[in-house]
Amino acid sequence: MGAGHAHRLYRHGHSPVHGLPPHTKLAATFAFVVVVVSTPREAMWAFGLYAVLLAVVAFVARVPAGFLLKRLLIEVPFVAFAVLMPFVAEGERVEVLGLSLSVSGLWGAWNVLAKGTLGVAASVLLASTTELRELLLGLQRLKLPPLLVQIASFMIRYGDVITDEMRRMRIARESRGFEAKGVRHWGVLAKSAGALFIRSYERGERVHLAMISRGYAGSMPVIDEVTASRAQWSYALALPFTALVVCLLGWAL
Fold this sequence. Notes:
This protein has 253 residues and is mainly alpha-helical. The chain has 9 helices and 2 strands.
């Protein structure tokens, strides 16, 4: 997989959650999200318990609340969509603070907000306690198709390379007195985008030739063999198992 590097979502630590094998955390997060999505929207108390479970995980992982809440802002577009649902949905109406809102729209908005927020929070906790390289190793350990793992690996690495190249081009433009202020500067930005594409394409060709010259034949060598004990699996699956109990109670009550 090559050398690993930290990403902005990752928070370095030595907590029990950080120490779990990546494939156990991936499986636990996926199972938790499935359970949350399967919970009936009418069981509001269940979603409160799910939030408590994630808060416990964040506490054990030593992830500050501010760090987690700041990264939850990524779901703002979905929140905006949910807020509009009571106004545009059809069906039975109800008066709330002088506004005529759709009952089905209110339930739909709650459903999107509750399940979406919990899913994003679980994903943020996963990313906060697992490095990118470990995530890729975990996906490989879970028998995801090797080609997809390689595509994800190259995408992450080339994403960083292209971002750094864009930064250098921006600094070069600004050092020459250029500052984009309107439509008349779009031509310069378009030429910069074209140059970035050509440079990225050429870099990709050089990397591909270098890989072939070093014996690449369609699969990446596995340097670290990631394994998990039964105790580690039990520890990781405690979250989705507890959530499953809550989900079943939500359907029964």
